[in-house]
Write a structure and sequence with these properties.
Chain lengths: ~350, ~400
């Protein structure tokens, strides 16, 4: 089991990790000579796991790629779905749909606007705002909570939404954002605004703020995750260094930016990549809160819509492949990081 | 001495303010959900949940604005007898009441020289009148939870309808209602039936595979494990379509078995990763001496590995449990409405808007109950598992 130190292991900074020559495959833990047995035994232990993974992850991935080049029920090539007089990418027709259907290319301005209200634009908003939000709230809270007596309680409260389903969180926040009548606000947010003399806002159907309002829910859910991992990393920062800096007259602000952040930078990178992956896959929140309407769609929800509402296998799988293409750099990074860890084990 | 302490306190003040403010922002929305789920429907629709913390005195606004003309008991004007339920039923909310108060009577303003009540006061007056001029007997009720459990979607409450014999046709007003397919009671059972095997199976398989990766020598051990690390981040969406097509062919759609297997397959990479890393840290001597005593791999696995791996199993268990319990996408695709789980049922209530906030909030709270208990009692293990893996498909 990895201890907190294991995660934050500052042995290699990411830059070094990238530049280093391919790591030689080390054996994970040397197996004692006496334990060596017949060549079949290990495979018996691996069999159940390998079978379910092959069947539920590897085979469907390959199959999904194949289906993305087919028509709406997977019976003929996607090229047959082209319409005359319309642009056509032949066998890549589903990808043409997945990549361009949401965009208005009549003018650069229209393209720009349609991009930022498309599922791609929204996913980019999600990545930027949510990752920045969760990491900064998590980091700030990890640093500050360390100094108060009720640290455990404070952290438990920030962490609590992790136990709540996205659906439950969606209900909780839909109620906070509720848009009542001019006289009667039962949603907390609009009630605060009207009591301050403002006008109530339909938070979830007013573009473009609605996307950001859903992202706030995401931040509410995931900040605790970032906080926990970053707090574990912060605990491994040697106290002597911090004390020495303080004795030398460094302000807390300097200590934070010049000492803490550089030391835990590898962990921050891990948290950021994990969050990006989580955001890319995020489906439930958008599904529950707006169903992707009012220009809040994201890639993961669009895949669901194409597949299970429009019943178009080809288009649904094409969107899924686009999603996985976006994630591939992170798969690469993940494996790379694993190899680094193993090498320094 | 004292001065020092005050100074320290002042220095710490911004920290406390930020932390406590954040804690409030984090806890208040959930608190609102809990409070709302315990309020009577008419109160939920007419006033914000936070008003339960304010001293409630509905007779106050009534006395201020209405008692002069209508009388303390509301019966002073025979044409406008405020104790008459039929008349009151026309003004269920502040909106209708205020509209009526703005209308002139016989050419005179309704309120005479009095100012109009505010929206909140009007809502209080409406509530007060609806309750027959009584102070609300109780601000809280558990009816919403009963309604949510049995899947009641009528106009009143399940208990009131059953007492009057006017319940919807799908309810029988006996204990069997708790398993009504539209209710959260049944969904709770379904969620449990999905979650328990879908938590147990991956742990079992991962323990086997983790042992092989940690303590058995075979060709391609490292390569296979590196591949597994990559598989951890493959999105669920990438595999849904072929599996649901295949399930449709062999009749596994809508069955528990299909969901168990799917969750097992998808939980595998992370579970093996965690298991192998944990088992790899066990001391080598332990296994060597077991072997010298003539133990086989199977004995070592059963009698050494499983008991020693309990902390990892606990981490994994709670992780997988929360993951499966809170999942919406997989149950939406493979189970749907035929065997609805809690998340499905709630998302359905949200999107179809079939019931009011009071039932929706009660249902949401019911679905959060078990994960909350698991989470707070086993938080230590959860955090450990998270720190060890940090990535989950």
């Amino acid at each position: 089991m990895a201890t907190p130190q294991d995660i934050s292991k500052p042995a290699t900074t990411p830059e070094i990790a990238v530049r280093r020559k391919p790591v030689k495959a080390p054996s994970a833990a040397p197996v004692p000579e006496i334990m060596k047995q017949g060549p079949l035994v290990p495979w018996l232990y691996l069999l159940p796991a390998l079978v379910v993974m092959a069947f539920f992850i590897v085979y469907p991935m390959i199959n999904t790629i194949g289906l993305s080049f087919q028509n709406r029920d997977g019976t003929a090539s996607a090229a047959t779905t082209c319409r005359e007089g319309q642009p056509c990418w032949g066998v890549f027709e589903n990808y043409r749909y997945a990549l361009t259907a949401e965009f208005n290319t009549s003018s650069p301005g229209a393209f720009w606007n349609s991009f930022w209200s498309s599922s791609y634009g929204n996913t980019i908003k999600w990545i930027i705002v949510m990752v920045f939000g969760t990491v900064s709230v998590g980091l700030a809270f990890a640093v500050l909570a360390d100094r108060v007596k009720y640290e455990a309680l404070a952290k438990a409260i920030l962490f609590m939404p992790m136990a709540i389903s996205f659906v439950g969180a969606g209900v909780i926040w839909k109620f906070v954002y509720d848009y009542g009548t001019q006289q009667n606000q039962i949603g907390l947010l609009n009630s605060i605004i009207t009591s301050l003399g403002g006008r109530p806002v339909a938070w979830l159907s007013t573009t473009p703020i609605n996307t950001y309002m859903i992202i706030l829910v995401g931040i509410w859910i995931w900040s605790g995750f970032c906080m926990t991992i970053l707090a574990a990393a912060l605990k491994s920062v040697p106290d002597e260094i911090l004390e020495a800096a303080r004795v030398d007259g460094a302000t807390e602000w300097t200590v934070f930016w010049k000492i803490m952040v550089p030391i835990i930078l590898p962990t921050i990178t891990v948290v950021v990549t994990t969050m990006v992956i989580n955001v890319l896959k995020l489906f439930d929140l958008v599904y529950v809160m707006t169903g992707g309407n009012f220009q809040t769609d994201v890639i993961a929800n669009r895949m669901y819509t194409e597949m299970y509402k429009n019943f178009n296998v080809g288009r649904g799988t094409a969107v899924a492949v686009v999603l996985v293409l976006a994630i591939i750099p992170f798969i690469y990074y993940n494996v790379r990081r694993f190899l680094e860890q193993e090498a320094t084990r | 001495m004292n001065k020092d302490r005050i100074n320290k306190l002042l220095n710490q003040l911004p920290t406390h303010v930020i932390i406590i403010l954040t804690m409030i922002i984090w806890i208040v929305p959930t608190l609102g959900l809990l409070v709302t789920s315990l309020r009577p429907p008419e109160a939920v629709g007419s006033s914000g949940w936070w008003t339960v913390f304010a001293p409630q005195n509905a007779s106050g606004p009534y006395a201020t604005y209405c008692a002069d003309c209508h009388g303390v008991d509301g019966k002073a004007l025979p044409q406008a007898d405020l104790s008459n339920p039929e008349l009151i039923a026309k003004y269920p909310r502040s909106l209708q009441l205020l509209a009526m108060l703005r209308k002139p009577i016989n050419g005179q303003p309704h309120m005479g020289d009095h100012p109009l009540p505010s929206a909140q006061e009007a809502a209080d007056i409406a509530t007060y009148l609806r309750q027959g001029g009584q102070e609300a007997a109780s601000q809280f009720t558990i009816n919403n939870y009963i309604d949510a459990l049995v899947g009641y979607r009528g106009q009143d409450t399940y208990r009131a309808d059953c007492a009057a014999g006017t319940q919807p046709p799908d309810l029988k007003c006996n204990l069997s209602d708790i398993l009504n397919p539209r209710g959260m009671g049944r969904a709770f059972v379904n969620s449990l039936l999905v979650t328990l095997p879908a938590t147990f199976l991956p742990i079992l398989f991962a323990a086997f595979a983790g042992y092989a990766f940690a303590w058995l020598d075979f060709k391609g051990r490292f390569l296979l494990f590196a591949l597994l690390v990559g598989l951890q981040v493959v999105p669920l969406q990438m595999t849904l379509v072929p599996i649901s097509r295949f399930y449709a062919q062999i009749g596994l759609n809508g069955t528990f078995l299909g969901v168990w297997l799917f969750h097992t397959g998808f939980g595998m990479p992370y579970a093996i990763y965690l298991m192998r890393n944990f088992l790899g840290t066990l001391p080598k001597d332990l296994f060597e001496s077991a072997y010298l005593d003539g133990a086989s791999h199977w004995t070592a696995f059963r009698q050494l590995v499983i008991p020693l791996a309990m902390p990892a199993i606990a981490s994994l268990g709670i992780f997988q449990f929360l993951w499966v319990w809170n999942d919406l996408l997989v149950s939406l695709v493979f189970l749907g409405g035929t065997t609805p789980v809690m998340t499905y049922q709630i998302s359905n209530m949200v999107t179809s808007l079939g019931s009011g906030w009071q039932v929706l909030t009660a249902a949401a709270f019911l679905s959060m109950l078990l994960p909350m208990i698991v989470f707070f009692s086993l938080q230590r293990y959860f955090v450990r598992g998270m720190l060890a893996g940090a990535v989950k498909g």
